[in-house]
Design a protein that fits this description.
Layout (H helix, E strand, L loop, with lengths): L8 H32 L1 E2 L2 E2 L5 E6 L3 H7 L10 E6 L12 E5 L8 H14 L3 E6 L10 H18 L8 E6 L1 H15 L4 E7 L6 H8 L10 E6 L7 H14 L4 E6 L7 H20 L8
Parallel strand pairs: 5-6, 5-7, 7-8, 8-9, 9-10
Antiparallel strand pairs: 1-2, 3-4, 4-6
Helix pairs in contact: 2-4, 3-8, 4-5, 5-6
């Protein structure tokens, strides 16, 4: 005769089966939710999945049109934004945003140079965003042309992901793109964006001082980390020119300027480029953790 506190073997087996079914259902539900969440992501109306790179047409505001028209350019009907996000992208979290800028040489769009940083930046937990015109600038590839389309891409990011206006930004460029990145970084800071770093490679002319004079970003901008990467055999941006750029930045009042050289010319190897981008990313993340007080020469 079975005592009241004893459980029949059949009942225990049924309980185990019920528990197994419950676990499977919960896991399936979570997987479906994650799939649905990923499937529901869009950027400017274009479906976006974590780990992907997408392109979307974006509208231009009146202010952005005024920038784009700099140099006599006809204003296009729209801009083009390219967004790359890491595999773990969740718009409810905060993500640092890298804005790459291309040189006017060959009329490459900013999205062209985005691909140079893409693998390393995504691995470091950054998203990348580039804004361009639907065609090259019709008359002058001005800084205003690049600025207006980049601002339009940022607007599209904010419309797509509420809260992203508070995400920190860093600007990056190589050669002429470095001049443009350093010149426009003060604009983004003056516009209310949290600029946490500027990565410049192969730069032979200092432009950030000029940008500060025009856009007036405020005194806190001079704490922004600036990373200079220079080729020791660079014939286009010679070592003397690049050290002159560094000294000019310091004379202007920038407190966090770091300058590293690498063996080679105007374009460094992919490995060296990835290493320096990683170094800059970790440097600005460290500055954030210290409350923007770090000084590193």
């Amino acid at each position: 005769m079975m005592r009241s506190h004893e459980t029949p073997c059949g009942s225990g087996h049924r309980n185990f089966q019920l528990l197994s079914v419950t676990i499977v259902c919960v896991v399936a539900s979570l997987a479906a939710s994650a799939c649905g969440f990923s499937a529901g992501l869009t950027f400017a109306g274009v479906p976006l999945s974590p780990g992907a790179t997408v392109e979307a047409n974006v509208p231009l505001s009146d202010l952005e049109k005024s920038y784009v028209s700099e140099g006599g350019n006809a204003v296009p009907s729209h801009g083009v934004a390219v967004l790359a996000v890491p595999r773990g992208f969740d718009p409810k979290k905060s993500w640092p945003v890298l804005l790459p800028f291309a040189s006017s040489d060959h009329l490459f769009p900013n999205a062209h140079d985005l691909m140079f940083y893409r693998a390393t930046a995504l691995a470091e937990g950054w998203i990348l965003l580039a804004g361009d015109g639907p065609t090259p600038a019709p008359r002058l590839d001005s800084s205003g042309w690049r600025a207006g389309h980049t601002l339009a891409a940022l607007d599209a990011l904010h419309r797509s992901f509420p809260g992203s206006a508070r995400w920190p930004l860093a600007c990056a460029g190589q050669s002429g793109g470095a001049k443009r990145a350093s010149y426009l970084a003060p604009l983004f800071a003056a516009d209310g964006y949290h600029v946490i770093g500027i990565f410049l490679e192969g730069i032979n002319e200092e432009k950030v001082t000029e940008g500060c004079r025009r856009f007036k970003p405020g005194n806190s901008f001079f704490l922004t980390p600036i990373f200079l990467s220079s080729g020791q055999q660079d014939k286009i941006a010679t070592p003397n020119q690049q050290f002159a750029v560094e000294n000019s930045m310091r004379d202007t009042g920038f407190k966090n300027v770091r300058h590293k050289t690498f063996p080679g010319g105007h374009f460094q190897s992919c490995f060296a480029g990835e290493r320096n981008v990683k170094c800059h990313a970790r440097k600005v993340e460290y500055r954030e953790s210290r409350g923007n007080t770090d000084t590193n020469h």
